[in-house]
């Protein structure tokens, strides 16, 4: 059988993913070496379409990349002016005193509340002005490896029917060949996963541990809006063994970013991150900010929480991992934008080095990372997240306080992660069911009305992009032991149990997928494989996300 | 034969539009924009006519802000040969659009203008008809099938309860309905090639067209939220409720 021939195009550097890391790398490459051809692809329908973040960002890396970012009109418009951290109980809240001493990582003076999607759109304009070719709407579907060197990626075929056969609109994918390929897919990238496996990049690293962030943007009455206010919480409704908390930021024109992050190493199979996120809004500490407002957007995304210990080998013949594909998030700061951008910039420098001598592996990247403030930051922060995994929320908080005030991040030991997140779930009959109130339609909502606000769309007639490697495992493991945890952890209602009473089976509503990647991480046997759907599909997050 | 296809940059059809807090219009800042879907159908039809040999050149035109270039590039990636951007910061009404298009028709001399039947943002459904009126050309609106034969164009029109066949002498105006065709994907190689196709920018003021708005927007509001339904136990209860509560029978 003859396959239609894919077209191919050669570039110096191919970048997969148009988030802060990929765009920063692209900009740095053209700044250092204006004749280098750089092609960046993004699976979202436009740059920013798949970006979800809080986001309070530290402008450090941005200022290094584009020192005149203010003059260029970067959308960093709301400086942080006030911040609170609350420990919540079911009915009350305790404000953490001397926040800058006890939790120095949380000090946000000089930082900005932004829509990271808007920041990325702006970065893309800067990159295009420098001559970067940016192609949104095209998903990297395949890593091209020849003679054990990554030589680029291929975009997915378009117009393939649900049955896997080419439809009337069929367009074959295209090979984007690069001397170097940078993977900037964000947390749990689907191509990054293949590259890590092929080159065994995780060999000397701790398992990666993840969190799931779920976010809403609200528009609230002007009289309640306090631009620059940052509020975080921990404690209720999560139990002592579960890591997570909520955020609330006032920014922009009467907008509030509200969201919730939960560590995906949680144990209770009945837990539903979505419903935890919804019910926190009923707590007075949050309710008072949102009442009278309306919810205008919704999104979700997994993030890497492993930090320093979990960072894999960063380079391989023909390329490197940057941003959250590698796992550069600073967990105690709950920020990854500045570290992602920095890693992209350092990788760009290393690629320019490697091009000079035509070396296959941009090896100086690792060295540059280790010598930068990025490494210092992650090194200082390295024990905090594992302390929570080991000692629980209260113990972890005490450890974090000690680490900050006494050890100052210079502990002579390093705490390690022992488990992958898919190994931590306990069987359904060993777990207590949390009580989740029904949505009231004013402050709290169900999944489907939420997904609607993410403007998610996939071409309906295409193969299901969420694949069960072994379909029979679902019944014996997911259903019989854990009672379908995917139906609860998926924030988009993709997974549904059909015919629960008679012949339970899994129904996958792949069109709802907001590309958060949680199922690829948390499925007990890692039986669910998240692959890229047709480019341009997925959420279309609007301004404000 | 040359074909002119006007295309409009609108809020993407996947986006839930949000009315601005002051009720003055729909929020477009930072919102994803793309080509009006009916215009995509028009571009596809024009490109197919060229591929069949019925036309020699497809020229796309958009009237709007600088970013409308992206929409024109998409049209060229689908197969249009070149593009014209009439640059304005205003959002012109159908009559003004039709007048601008008339000047371009006079300049370019196409035998066929294929438009989308309406734009999904204001749903006016007027530009094609107004342009036909201004030019004194025949029009085949709501087209679901188009054939160019011996200097005439035969159009199947979607009308209430069926289809109507019209045959128009060229030059003519066609507006595309949903079932005319299924537009192709702009493939990555074609998007790359489209970057090199010619795009001419003309400031709207240079055309000397009166674009003064004739309409005033009084207010814009979102539709009232639908109330939740109820389940009834029996047909009798349903009839009772329809009669006494809803008072519809």
TrEMBL record, chain A:
A UniProt-annotated Pfam family: Fer4_ETF_QO
- What does the record give as the reaction this protein catalyses? a ubiquinone + reduced [electron-transfer flavoprotein] = a ubiquinol + oxidized [electron-transfer flavoprotein] + H(+)
Q: Which domain of life is it from?
A: Bacteria
Q: Which cofactor does it need?
A: [4Fe-4S] cluster; FAD
Under PROSITE patterns, the record lists:
4FE4S_FER_2
Q: Which InterPro entries match?
A: 4Fe4S_Fe-S-bd (IPR017896), ETF-QO (IPR040156), ETF-QO/FixC_UQ-bd (IPR049398), ETF-QO/FixX_C (IPR007859), FAD/NAD-bd_sf (IPR036188)
Q: Which UniProt keywords apply?
A: 4Fe-4S, Electron transport, FAD, Flavoprotein, Iron, Iron-sulfur, Metal-binding, Oxidoreductase, Transport, Ubiquinone
The answer, when asked if Iron-sulfur is one of the entry's keywords, is yes
- EC number(s): the record gives 1.5.5.1
| Co-factor remark | Binds 1 [4Fe-4S] cluster.
GO MF annotations in UniProt: 4 iron, 4 sulfur cluster binding; electron-transferring-flavoprotein dehydrogenase activity; metal ion binding
Family matches, as SUPFAM superfamilies? 4Fe-4S ferredoxins (SSF54862), FAD-linked reductases, C-terminal domain (SSF54373), FAD/NAD(P)-binding domain (SSF51905)
State the Gene3D superfamilies in the record: 3.30.70.20, 3.30.9.90, FAD/NAD(P)-binding domain
Provide the 4Fe-4S ferredoxin-type domain boundaries: 504-533
Q: What does this protein do?
A: Accepts electrons from ETF and reduces ubiquinone.
What is the designated name of this protein? Electron transfer flavoprotein-ubiquinone oxidoreductase
Specify the species: Acetobacter lovaniensis
From TrEMBL, chain B:
Gene Ontology molecular function terms on file: ATP binding; electron transfer activity
Instruction: Identify the domain of life.
Output: Bacteria
Keywords of this entry: Electron transport, Transport
- Biological-process GO terms, alphabetical: carboxylic acid catabolic process; regulation of DNA-templated transcription
**Does this entry carry the keyword Protein transport?**
no
State its cofactor.
AMP
A Pfam family for this UniProt protein? Answer: ETF
Q: Which residues form the Sigma-54 factor interaction domain?
A: 58-227
What family classification does the UniProt entry report for this protein?
Answer: Belongs to the ETF beta-subunit/FixA family.
Q: Which PANTHER family does this entry report, sorted A to Z?
A: ELECTRON TRANSFER FLAVOPROTEIN BETA-SUBUNIT (PTHR21294), ELECTRON TRANSFER FLAVOPROTEIN SUBUNIT BETA (PTHR21294:SF8)
Complex and partners: Heterodimer of an alpha and a beta subunit.
Q: What does this protein do?
A: The electron transfer flavoprotein serves as a specific electron acceptor for other dehydrogenases. It transfers the electrons to the main respiratory chain via ETF-ubiquinone oxidoreductase (ETF dehydrogenase).
Designated name of the protein: Electron transfer flavoprotein subunit beta
Native source organism of the sequence: Acetobacter lovaniensis
């Amino acid at each position: 059988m003859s396959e239609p021939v894919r077209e191919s195009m050669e570039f110096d550097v191919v970048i997969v993913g148009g988030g802060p890391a990929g765009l920063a790398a692209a900009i740095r490459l053209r700044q250092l070496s204006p004749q280098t051809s750089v092609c960046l692809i993004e699976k979202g329908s436009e740059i920013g379409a798949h970006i979800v973040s809080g986001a309070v960002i530290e402008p450090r890396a941005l200022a290094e990349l584009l020192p005149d970012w203010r003059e260029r009109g970067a959308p960093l418009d709301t400086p942080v002016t006030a911040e609170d951290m609350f420990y919540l109980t079911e009915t009350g809240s305790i404000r953490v005193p001397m926040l800058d001493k006890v939790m120095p990582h949380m000090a946000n003076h000089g930082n900005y509340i932004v829509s990271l999607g808007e920041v990325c759109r702006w970065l893309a304009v800067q990159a295009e002005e420098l001559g970067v070719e940016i192609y949104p709407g095209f998903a990297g579907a395949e890593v091209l490896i020849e003679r054990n060197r990554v030589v680029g990626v291929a975009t997915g075929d378009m117009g393939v029917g649900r049955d896997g056969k080419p439809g009337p609109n069929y367009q074959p994918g295209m090979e984007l060949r690069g001397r170097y390929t940078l993977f900037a897919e964000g947390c749990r990238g689907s191509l990054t996963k293949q590259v890590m496996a092929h080159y065994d990049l995780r060999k000397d690293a701790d398992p990666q541990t993840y969190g799931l962030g779920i976010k809403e943007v609200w528009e609230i009455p002007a009289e309640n809006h306090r631009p620059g206010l940052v509020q975080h919480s921990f404690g209720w409704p999560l139990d002592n063994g579960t890591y997570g908390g909520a955020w609330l930021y006032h920014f922009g024109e009467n907008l509030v970013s509200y969201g919730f992050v939960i560590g995906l190493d949680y144990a209770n199979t009945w837990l539903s991150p979505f419903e935890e996120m919804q019910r926190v809004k009923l707590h007075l500490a949050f309710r008072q900010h949102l009442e009278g407002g309306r919810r205008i957007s919704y999104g979700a995304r997994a993030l890497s929480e492993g930090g320093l210990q979990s960072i894999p080998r960063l380079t391989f013949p023909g390329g490197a991992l940057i941003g959250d594909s590698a796992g550069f998030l600073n967990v105690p700061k709950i920020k990854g934008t500045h570290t992602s951008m920095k890693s992209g910039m350092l990788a760009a420098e290393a690629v320019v080095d490697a091009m000079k001598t035509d070396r296959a592996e941009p090896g100086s990247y690792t060295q540059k990372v280790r010598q930068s403030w990025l490494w210092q930051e992650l090194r200082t922060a390295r024990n905090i997240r594992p302390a929570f995994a080991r000692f629980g929320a209260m113990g972890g908080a005490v450890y974090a306080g000690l680490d900050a005030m006494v050890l100052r991040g210079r502990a002579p030991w390093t705490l390690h992660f022992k488990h992958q997140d898919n190994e931590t779930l306990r069987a359904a009959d060993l777990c207590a069911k949390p009580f989740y109130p029904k949505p009231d339609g004013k402050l709290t909502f169900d999944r489907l009305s939420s997904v609607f606000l993410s403007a998610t769309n996939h071409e309906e007639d295409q193969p299901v992009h969420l694949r069960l490697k072994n379909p029979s495992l679902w019944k014996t493991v997911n259903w019989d032991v854990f009672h379908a945890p995917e139906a609860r952890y998926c924030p988009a209602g993709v997974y549904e149990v059909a015919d629960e009473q008679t012949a339970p089976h899994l129904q996958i509503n792949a069109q709802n997928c907001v590309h958060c990647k949680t199922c690829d991480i948390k499925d007990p046997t890692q039986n669910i494989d998240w692959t890229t759907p047709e480019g341009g599909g997925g959420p279309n997050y609007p301004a404000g996300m | 034969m040359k074909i002119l296809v006007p295309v409009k940059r609108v809020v993407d059809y996947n986006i839930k539009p949000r009315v601005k807090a002051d009720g003055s219009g729909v929020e477009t800042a930072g919102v994803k924009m793309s080509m009006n879907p009916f215009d995509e159908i028009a571009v596809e039809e024009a490109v197919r006519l060229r591929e069949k040999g019925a036309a020699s050149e497809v020229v796309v035109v958009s009237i709007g802000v600088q970013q409308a270039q992206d929409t024109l590039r998409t049209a060229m990636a689908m197969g249009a040969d070149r593009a014209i951007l009439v640059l304005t910061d205003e959002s012109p009404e159908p009559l003004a659009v039709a007048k601008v298009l008339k000047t371009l028709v006079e300049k370019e001399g196409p035998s066929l203008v294929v438009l989308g039947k309406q734009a999904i943002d204001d749903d006016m459904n007027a530009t094609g008809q107004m342009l036909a009126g201004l030019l004194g050309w025949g029009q085949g609106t709501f087209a679901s099938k188009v054939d160019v034969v011996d200097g005439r164009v035969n159009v199947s029109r979607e009308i209430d309860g069926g289809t109507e066949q019209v045959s128009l002498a060229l030059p003519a105006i066609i507006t595309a309905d949903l079932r005319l065709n299924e537009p192709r994907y702009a493939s990555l190689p074609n998007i790359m090639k489209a970057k090199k196709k010619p795009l001419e920018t003309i400031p709207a003021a240079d055309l000397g067209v009166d674009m003064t708005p004739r309409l005033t927007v009084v207010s814009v509001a979102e539709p009232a939220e639908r109330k939740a339904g109820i389940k009834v136990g029996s047909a009798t209860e349903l009839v009772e409720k329809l009669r006494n509560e809803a008072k519809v029978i």
